[in-house]
Amino acid sequence: MASSSSAPAKRLSQVVSHMASPSTSGSADVFHSTPYAPPDAIFALTAGYQQDKFDKKVNLGVGAYRDNEGKPFVLPVVRKAKQILASDDSIDHEYLPIAGLPSFVSATSKLIFGADSRAIKEDRVVTIQTISGTGANHYGGAFLQRFYEPWLGKSKEEKKIYVSNPTWANHKAIFNSVGLTPVDYPYYDSSTIGLALSSFLDFLRTAPAQSVILLHACAHNPTGVDPTRDEWKEIAKIFKEKGHFAFFDCAYQGFASGDLDNDAWAVRHFVSESIPLLVCQSYAKNAGLYGERIGALNIVASHAGDVEGGAARIKSQLLILQRQEISNPPTFGARIVSLILNDEKLFAEWKEDIETMAHRIIAMRERLHALLVDKYKTPAPGPNGWDHVVKQIGMFTFTGLNPTQCKAMVEKGHIYMTANGRISMAGINDKNVEWVAECIDKAIRGQL
Ligand SMILES: Cc1ncc(COP(=O)(O)O)c(C=O)c1O
Fold first, then answer.
1. Which of 106, 189, 320, 443 is 20 to 30 A from 372 in CA distance terms?
2. What is the topology classification, in CATH, of domain 41-74+352-444?
3. How far apart (Å, rounded) are the C-alpha atoms in residues 164 and 182?
4. Ligand 1 binding pocket includes 133 (Cβ within 6 Å)
């Protein structure tokens, strides 16, 4: 009888608390039906890590670079640029132009397309400063939603943006929020822990002409699996034949190989093939400016100037988007990046800093690989041994661990990683690599 007597009591207490809430909160309950949204998986992982008291705990969830001491890394060139800014009395705190800091805007497009890019020389590139890569993705989607010719008059369901399966967790949320429908395309083959090239190419061939397809320019997140140059050429060929639109997301230029030009190769190849495209840029990872929120959106137009399809018309609409969303972009990150991109000496120093980060990650891939293969002789999750650990590119490795093994890594090994098996190589260093390898070995053997 306990449950029947407690049910009315519970109901009564609900009624009392409901009646009491306006007076205790001081306002009417006008958000009563607001559902509780799930917390962001990556940020929740970090919160778990911070609360963990275990001395060997490791955070391999978050996609931010750490130095060999496991500390956030302020690039030496960024320190220098900050000092230059701090001692420059001519800098004021006025609003920037709506498109952003002009010296940043012109330099950022040259960084991605190359200073000798035909599209830039022909005045066909439209660039605006954005709130990092997230803002660029958001505007890219919002602009296409309004103006992509093949979509005019179509419903949200028909405005499909194809994204790799898997992709950066935020892509789908961003595109949904601007009235597009994200749809997966095959990209990753879990049986080989590599690129599902033939399914990807088949998809490109069979997708409706002029489809909008998101491509990670380099260092694919979350898999670390990038096409080779020859594979990119095959991909580009089909884009051209089918008239597909390439929505490039480039959040890791320089971070993948340590070389800025090398990491821009796919984008530049698509431009040289006259494939319609846009590129989102972020300086979060390659300049360590995570919190400054500095990035750019570049759209390559078919024509320069104020003609149909012309760059000037596209720019006028991007300015409207920016104005209504953030009015004008923030100054600090733009000034730092502008200094670095426009000063030969600082630019050379930046390249060295990028190499330092990229090469530390590559060295950790080699250490982890050697430990798993030589020391632990750990059975591999795929047919090619542990080669994927060294072959994958950029910040992330898709380990091939299954969700049960990932859970054991977190709960028993205190190694914080996402359930899809992704680890951030940037979180591995000389001090913790042995522990990470030991736990992977035990997790794979079911002994963790
Ligand atoms: C593929 C990809 N795109 C975009 C972003 C956006 O990053 P941010 O907005 O910090 O520049 C990220 C960050 O992790 C990413 O991995």
1. 189
2. Aspartate Aminotransferase, domain 1 (3.90.1150)
3. 10
4. yes
